[in-house]
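Following up on my earlier message about nicotinamide-adenine-dinucleotide. Here are the inputs again, as you asked, copied directly from the submission form:
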Amino acid sequence: MKILVAEKISQKGIEALLQEKNVSVDVHTDYTREQLLEVIENYDAIIVRSVTKVNEELYEKAKKLKVVGRAGNGVDNIDMKGATKRGIIVVNTPEANTVSAAEHTIGLMLSSCRNIPKANNRIKGRVWDRSDLKGTELRGKTLGIVGLGRIGSLVATRMQSFRMKVIAYDPYITDARFQKFGVEKKEKLEDLVREADFITVHTPKTEETLGMIGKDQFKIAKKGVRVVNCARGGIIDEESLAEALRDGIVASAGIDVLVGEPNTTSPLLDFDNVVNTPHLGADTFEAQDNVGVTIAHEVLSALRGEMVPNAVNLPTLARQELEELKSYLKLGETLGKHYHQLEKDPIEKVEISYSGELASMETSTITLALLKGIFETILKERVNYVNARLIAKNRGVDVTESKHSAAGNYLNLIQLKISSKNKTFTVSGTVLGKGDLRITEVNGYEFDVSPSNNMLVAEYIDKPGMIGQIGTLLGASKINIATMQVSRNCHVDRAMMILSVDCEVCKDSLKMMNGVEGVFNVSFIKL
Ligand code: NAD
Ligand code: MLT
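Thanks, got it. Here's what our run produced:
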C-alpha cells in the first residue's frame, strides 16, 4: 500500500505511518496541483489538510485511491459524494484540535478587543503612545456563539469564567445541550445578532452557513459589535464585514480563516482593527501531534478494511461504541459472505433481523457489514463499508431491518434472509461471550459452528454412507478435516454438514463431491 502525505503533518504522525509493515509513505508537501494529479494514480491513500482540493478532477486520476485522510476537522475541501460513489473512505480527526481552535478563538477575541497586535507593532517601532489603544472588558458582555458544537461549547464554558453572558444559536442540537453548557438558547439568528456584544461563529461551512453573518445581520447588530471567525472563511461574509468595519458598526474583528486560502488579498487585511492569522487555529504542538498520530492510525485502519470511528462518510461511531460492535461487524460480514458462495441467483431482497441485546443497539453499521460481506464475494475489493448500501441500491436490492427483543436461546442473534426470484436463503449467527462467533442456522438447518477461513457446506439425502463418501473424497484430495457438524431436516429426509478444512478445496474436488449420488450441493466457503 502506498500513502501520499500531501500536506504537512507532525513527525509523530509520519512515524506512526512508518510503523506499519507493507506500507510505503511518500511525503511531498511541495507538489503543484499538476504534479499531484500526475502521481496520484500510484497511491492507495492520501493525507491532506485544508488546502488540497480532493475533488472529481483528482478522483478521476486516482484509480487506486481507497482512503482520504483529512488531518483536521473541516472536510469542505473534500468532495464527499465523489468519494462515497467510488467506495473511498474519508476519515478525519474531529476531536484532535478542538481545544487549540477554541483557545485561538479566545486569543483573537482578546487581542482584537484590546488592540494587542497594533500596540505591539507601535512599541516595537519605539513609539510609546497609548492614546488611541483603549480596549474593552469582556466581563458583563454578551457573547453570541453561532454553532454550539465541539468548539463552540468549549468557547462557551471558557468565556463563562470571564463572567460573560453566553447565548447561542444552533437549530440542530437539543435544548439539553444548551442547558448542559449553561448557555441561553436563541431560536433565531437575528435574536442573537441583536443582543450580542461579541459574535463568534463555529459552524461547518455549508450552503446554509456561508455568509450567514452578512449585510442583513450587520444592519441589526449593536453598534460597536465585535466579531471572530475561527471556523471557515466566508461564514462571516468578507465584503459585508469590511463595509461594517468602515461604517463603524463593527468595532473590531479577529479572523483566522479567509475565503480561498491561501489568501493575501482579502479586504479584511487592510484594517488595523482586524487581527488576522493565517489559519492558525489548530497550529499548536499538542494539536498537531494529536492530529498527526490520529490520522495515521485511522488511515492505516481504513486501508486494512477495518471500521474507523471517524469515517466521515459512514455512520458516526464513538471509539467505545465501535469496540462494542466489533464482533457483530465480523459476524455480519461472515453471514453475508455465505450467500454468493452457496447460491447464484440475483438478489431481490435482503431482510435482516436483529434480536436480543442487539435490539437496543445502533445496528446500521452491522447492516453495512452484512451488505459488504454479501457483495464482496462477487465484486471484490471495490466493496466496503462506505459504498455497500449504494451498491445494494444500484443493483435494485431492497434492504430492510427489523428488531426483536427476544432471541430464543441466544442473548443476541442476527438472522439474514435473502430472497431471489424463486428462492429464499437464510443464515443466522450469534456472538458468545467476548467475541466467539457461531453460525446457528443455514437454510433451516440448525448448527453451532465456529466459522473458519475454509469451510465446506454439503446438503445431501439423509441416508447412511453419505458422510463417509465425502470424507473419502476429501482424503483423496489430501484435504484435512478440522471440525464437522451435521444437521438434519426430518421432514424431507435431507441433511446438511458443515466442515472446517485446513486448506482451500479446488474445483475438481468439488466436482467429484457434487457427483456423489444423493448429494444436492457441495460448496466451498472462503471467509
Ligand atoms: P461541530 O460539528 O462539532 O459543530 C458545529 C455545530 O454547528 C453543530 O453543533 C451544528 O449543529 C452547528 N450548525 C450547523 N449548521 C448550522 C447553522 N446553519 N446554524 C447554526 N448552527 C449550525 O464542529 P466543530 O468541531 O466545533 O468545528 C467548528 C468549525 O471550526 C468548523 O467549521 C471547523 O472546520 C472549524 N475548525 C477550524 C479550525 C481552525 O484552525 N481555524 C480548527 C478546527 C475546526
Ligand atoms: C480543521 O478543520 O481542522 C482546521 O481548519 C485546522 C487545519 O486544517 O489545520
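One observation from looking it over: The mean pLDDT is 95. Hope that helps, and feel free to reply on this thread.
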